[in-house]
Amino acid sequence: MEIQADSLDGVLYNLYQAIRTHGRPHKGSRGDTLELLGVSLRILKPRARISTSENRGKPFSAIGELLWYLSGSNKLDFISRYVPAYRDDAVDGIIEGAYGPRLLAMRGSINQLDSIHRLLSEKQGSRRAVIQLFNAEDIAADHKEIPCTTTLQFHLREGLLHLSVTMRSNDAYFGLPHDVFCFTMLQEMIARRLGVELGEYYQYVGSMHVYDAYIEAIDKYVEEGFQATVEMPAMPEGDPFRRVDGLLAIEARLGAGEELDAQAETGDSYWADIVRLLQVFWAKERPETQTGTLERLRTELAHALYRPFVDGRLHLARRGVVSAGAPAQPFDGGADVAV
Ligand SMILES: O=c1ccn([C@H]2C[C@H](O)[C@@H](COP(=O)(O)O)O2)c(=O)[nH]1
User: Fold this and answer.
1) Which CATH number belongs to the domain containing residue 152 in this structure?
2) Does ipTM come in above 0.90?
3) Which of 1, 110, 124, 214 gets the most CB atoms within 10 Å of its CB?
């Protein structure tokens, strides 16, 4: 089955209905699901990577997960602050299937992002620009958690960088919005590093499923109706990977409770907004000033598309729902507003 749309929301809207209509019951390792085999997604405007729906817009935890990948870390400590559900997957504080070490130091040393950049700089039309995340070792012995994503293949055609992702398993409710966000961001970062434009995004999934406990939630999503296509602004020119260390340092300072001026720190409105979203997330650690901080960040945002997500946090803050130590992402269900 192929589902094509301009945006993540367009894909979710059609996919959720397809799962409802054609999905077959399957008992997965983590619970009962409705499943579709062999689903191919195509997103024509990969910058429309954040859902504008009531409860599938996850910019805060998705940015946290992207930074975790880019840090090369496999530590639970980092990611559990943004996606607490990882706690169930950790072995001695380590996520064995973490993408970061595999992307940046596969088999201890191979930086696969550098390989892609070199390959496509030298041979633009190459069909070899494949990042491997899944390894034979992953199923040779039993592991608590292994990568759901098998490969990322980049295609440079007529000045556009397209990305095909293959996944062995994808949770259409929780995993998919995060995966699309992180992989299309990586796609745009590599496009900028190569000095080319962003193309289309494809995701082929062996087992696409929704856990039974979230069937009602996907029905609710569909009832909201078709969402307008809202694109993130284009990433500024230049190599975004040069920014990674700086962004990680800022993230660590925010996590430690520091306040900072996003524009002064980044000198760029695109990345300043990304930092502001992190500030919105971390504002929960100071409940006494949280509402004021969120209101200030809301007015500082250079791009209006992020405001509804700040409003979601403001709504929670005013109700006293999001407080110090609370997760961004209620993976355990619960809140139905954008967090
Ligand atoms: O990037 C990811 C990582 C995990 N999952 C989901 C898919 C499955 O529901 C579950 C992993 O379970 P197994 O496929 O390993 O049984 O996590 C995703 O959707 N995306």
Assistant:
1) 3.30.572.10
2) yes
3) 214
**Same domain? 148 vs 247:** no
Number of structural domains found in the chain: 2
DSSP 50-63: S--STTT--HHHHH
Among 102, 95, 103, which Cα is nearest to 76's? 95
Residues 54-66: tens digit of each pLDDT: 989 989 999 999 9
Which residue's alpha carbon is at the smallest distance from atom 3 of ligand 1? 148
Tokens at 125, concatenated:
């039309």
Q: Would you say the CB of residue 29 lies under 6 angstroms from ligand 1?
A: yes
Q: Is the pTM of this model over 0.90?
A: yes
What string of DSSP letters covers 106-164?
BTTTB-HHHHHHHHHHH-TT-S--EEE---THHHHS--S---SEEEEEEEEETTEEEEE
Same domain assignment for residues 197 and 250: no
